[in-house]
Amino acid sequence: MKALQKLLILGSGKMGGSLLKGLTSNNELNFDISVVEPNLIKDNYNLISANKIKHYQSINDLKETDFDTVLFAVKPQVISEVCSGVLENLDQKKIFSIISILAGTKVETFESYFGLSPIIRAMPNLAVSEGSGVTALYGNNNVNKAFKETTDKIFSGVGEVIWVDNEDMMDVVTSTSGSGPAYYFFLTECLSLIAEDMGLSKENADKLSRQVAIGSSDIMKSSNDSLSSLREKVTSKGGTTEAALKVLMSPDKEFYNIFKKAIREAYKRSKDLSN
Ligand SMILES: NC(=O)c1ccc[n+]([C@@H]2O[C@H](COP(=O)([O-])OP(=O)(O)OC[C@H]3O[C@@H](n4cnc5c(N)ncnc54)[C@H](OP(=O)(O)O)[C@@H]3O)[C@@H](O)[C@H]2O)c1
User: Fold this and answer.
1) Ligand 1: which residue has its CA nearest to atom 44?
2) Model confidence over 176-204: pLDDT tens digits?
3) Class of the CATH-defined domain 180-274
4) Measured between alpha carbons, how far apart are the two ends of the chain, in Å?
5) How far is the CA of 15 from the centre of ligand 1 (A)?
6) Is the distance from the beta carbon of residue 125 to the nearest atom of ligand 1 less than 6 Å?
7) Is 1 a residue whose pLDDT tops 60?
8) Which of 97, 109, 224, 227 has a CB 3.0–4.6 Å from the CB of 69, allowing a cystine?
9) Domains in the chain: boundaries
10) In this structure, which residue's CA is closest to atom 19 in ligand 1?
11) Which CATH code fits 5-165?
12) Is 90 exceeded by the pLDDT of residue 25?
């Protein structure tokens, strides 16, 4: 029988924990998983115990162990300490594959520590915790087909996956889908506040605006229609939606331009963080 692939996850906070949840709930993915995390929260502790995952407090507890893949899910601020810990403790005779979900941390940072390793940079978003995230993946020249497929499977277990072939695109992804859930929360918040301003109770306004967001997402999920035709379907001639869209889609593109300006700011910030 073929031995299971050994996967080490470094950091099991919000994102690491969500990925672990996806990995353990997907029968297609069968890894021998170890996790290094100094402060396990209760949910992740339960997940680890229920799935017989090995847990270590520190990378220093892993002397001379070898792994096929190491997934970095720590904060960018501690990356040099964590990479040094990996070099000092893991068996260096074997070249392991690397996956990093760190925002703004370029592939070259990992190359400077792990030279010949295949490295894949991933940018997931918060919705991976619900299994409905979207993750962009970018790999260096050492990544082969098998590693690509394995990584694709890991992130497909928690939502949709796209591949980009230029690392600069990771900043576009960060500013659109990485930060994206916050834009939708804000739009929903605006809808709720406006409904309240116009007379609904706070409770009703909140319930109504959340359900509009959920229902619209469900429609987008189940339909293959283009986004513009979905919009057109709810816009009857001379009706209320048309009246609102005339303002939102005014010829001077005021709404579109302000949204674009906001996303360009996120893009600039993402670029600054990675330099
Ligand atoms: N959250 C998002 O929406 C999102 C989206 C895309 C990408 N990311 C990326 O995902 C990464 C993790 O983010 P997060 O939100 O999951 O952060 P988080 O909840 O703070 O998780 C990071 C975890 O790593 C642990 N840790 C610290 N030092 C460690 C070490 N030496 N070895 C092993 N584990 C260590 C931390 O423990 P302590 O709490 O004790 O420090 C913490 O539990 C970040 O690089 C971020 O850029 C996050």
Assistant:
1) 75
2) 999 999 999 999 999 999 999 999 999 99
3) mainly alpha
4) 46
5) 7
6) yes
7) no
8) 97
9) 5-165, 180-274
10) 13
11) 3.40.50.720
12) no
